[in-house]
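Hello, quick one for you while I still have it in my head. I'm working through a protein record and want to make sense of it properly. Would you mind checking whether the tokens look sensible for this chain? I owe you a coffee for this, so here goes:
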Amino acid sequence: MEKERAEGLAARAEEAVEGATARVAAEGGDGAAVVSDPEKCNTVTFVGADGMEQSFPLDFLLERGAIVANRVNGEDIMSVMGATNQLWVPGLPAKYFVRDIREIRFTNEEVPPVIGPFVDDGHDYTNRPNVAAKAEYVGRVGEPMEFSGWAHDFDKRIIAVEFSLDNGEHWTRYDLGDTTADRWVSWTFAWTPEASGAYQMKVRSVNEDGDASPIAAVHTFEVL
């Protein structure tokens, strides 16, 4: 079973990493033993194009359902996150998420790395819950404009998305249906301008605790 799990993770990683190869037999770090037999693998190390390395216990990644993503909500991840791919581990903050992965090493370490329980001390999440927004930069009076984006809060559900056109003085709230903490929310919002001028749409998400994004997503546009 362990062999099948290790081979399965390698196959998923190789399929997900665009333009890179998940090398099962690669040079290990100091004291690392290269794994030719997946049954003996206990550690997975991700190496980014910038040299960043992050190692995890194999069982930890499998239990968390870790993935190497190259698309977000059907869009190429480059347009959303600014990278060709990114590691994503449910329940962990972004500091663990290696981007632009160029190598994945499967090794057998005498002492596997330990990823302790994460405690949110306010330093890892600068904007929680998080949100992003995009739309056209030019609209026309009387014609609907569509805004879209995503929202997530790591281990909490997103229950609503709010919009403001008066710099946050007033917010229009739209409650969401069934959502889960392990899936991002993809949202769309249509608004029809009634007058020409320069506008700024602010968007924030709300989690299951009622907390709203401390930093709203902002989209500035002009209506002709």
User: Anything to note?
Assistant: The radius of gyration is 21 Å. Residues 1-35 have pLDDT under 50 and may be disordered. Residues 2-16 form the longest helix (15 residues). The chain has two domains: 2-108, 130-223.
